[in-house]
Amino acid sequence: xxxxxxxxxxxxxxxxxxxxxxxxxxxxxxxxxxxxxxxxxxxxxxxxxxxxxxxxxxxxxxxxxxxxxxxxxxxxxxxxxxxxxxxxxxxxxxxxxxxxxxxxxxxxxxxxxxxxxxxxxxxxxxxxxxxxxxxxxxxxxxxxxxxxxxxxxxxxxxxxxxxxxxxxxxxxxxxxxxxxxxxxxxxxxxxxxxxxxxxxxxxxxxxxxxxxxxxxxxxxxxxxxxxxxxxxxxxxxxxxxxxxxxxxxxxxxxxxxxxxxxxxxxxxxxxxxxxxxxxxxxxxxxxxxxxxxxxxxxxxxxxxxxxxxxxxxxxxxxxxx
Length: 321
Ligand code: G3H
Ligand code: 13P
Ligand code: ZN
Prior knowledge:
Elements: H1 6-16, E1 20-24, H2 28-40, E2 45-50, H3 51-57, H4 59-72, E3 77-84, H5 87-96, E4 100-103, H6 110-126, E5 130-135, H7 161-171, E6 175-178, H8 197-212, E7 217-219, H9 227-235, H10 249-258, E8 260-265, H11 267-283, H12 290-312
Parallel strand pairs: 1-2, 1-8, 2-3, 3-4, 4-5, 5-6, 6-7, 7-8
Helix pairs in contact: 2-4, 2-12, 3-4, 5-6, 7-8, 8-10, 9-11, 11-12
The chain binds glyceraldehyde-3-phosphate, 1,3-dihydroxyacetonephosphate and zinc ion.
């Protein structure tokens, strides 16, 4: 089975009111864990590859690994560039056959962000590829400096609903990553904080009122940073801070219901893999066969992905809709 186009996955997810898991892939074990969980739970999946992943694994290895995943599975799989930072990188991935790319010029001013996004959109649309862009800036709620804040939008780093409409119209992007207090990594919030879900509803409504229908929004930084994984890592010699904090899964469920069609998860996979590896190496210090510590680590990632797709994103069971 060939890759499935991102457009098809989005259309079905919007219709079925579920979210697609967009999981970051850096190596074979992560990929196997994601694919096995999604295959067993009959979930469509987006595999996403960052510039760092391409640098770490070599684009050719990643391409061949994904070809292998496609040939051993039956589920729909799309391949996406995560956080492309230049037109050239996006073009490279489009030319390699990615079904979607993200151009992230969210650190630029509005006009420049539109200009760069539009350039990628123009190329992508001529080559059967779709484009995610980002408006607002993902610094997270802990750095929220309010209405008087940063330079990227009228409301500091957060996405402003009316600007989102203008941005989509002017850039022609096919999906939009929004900033609603989300951020990357394992230290997202100080204490008990939440995503700005009211803002998310207003963004979705503004796009719909502007005639853009059920426009797909993307939630980056959607790891929930499970406490039990941080504890497990620390129990076996790790040193994750006591202030780790992720997005409560209840927030992700609301985001899914409101219309975040693509939900990006990387940190949680990293933590599961690290916890699994550390446990074996701690308990069996004489072990030096990588298969002995990578297999349990892969199993932990697989169970984490299974939990996300079944209980949080609700895309399990939708592979063959
Ligand atoms: O959003 C960032 C992703 O977690 C990818 O991270 O650039 O370290 O591969 P990376
Ligand atoms: P996390 O760091 O929360 O996993 O976010 C990943 C992400 O947004 C990838 O683009
Ligand atoms: Zn991201």
